[in-house]
């Protein structure tokens, strides 16, 4: 599982946790997140996220 950070506000998407409040189940891989999904904090697009090295 990987994590991705919003380059605009710093919000973290963790594949293991998903984003249930946005309808994305835990365990959802980043590539399976819908292309029209936006950051729940700032509304940034999926393209504005970058994978984080852990």
From TrEMBL:
Domain Rubredoxin-like: from-to ranges: 1-52
Entry-linked PROSITE patterns: RUBREDOXIN (PS00202), RUBREDOXIN_LIKE (PS50903)
UniProt keyword Amino-acid biosynthesis, yes or no: no
Cofactor detail note: Binds 1 Fe(3+) ion per subunit.
Keyword annotations from UniProtKB, A to Z: Electron transport, Iron, Metal-binding, Transport
Cofactor needs: Fe(3+)
Highest taxon listed in the record's lineage: Bacteria
Any one Pfam family match given in the protein's UniProt record, by short name: Rubredoxin
InterPro entries registered for this protein in UniProt: Rubredoxin (IPR024922), Rubredoxin-like_dom (IPR024934), Rubredoxin_dom (IPR024935), Rubredoxin_ET (IPR050526), Rubredoxin_Fe_BS (IPR018527)
Recorded family membership: Belongs to the rubredoxin family.
Protein name: Rubredoxin
Organism annotation: Orrella daihaiensis
């Amino acid at each position: 599982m990987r994590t991705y950070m919003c380059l605009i506000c710093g919000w973290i998407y963790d594949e293991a946790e998903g984003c249930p409040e946005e309808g994305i189940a835990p365990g959802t891989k980043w590539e399976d997140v819908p292309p029209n999904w936006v950051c729940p904090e700032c509304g940034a697009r999926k393209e504005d996220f970058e994978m984080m090295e852990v």
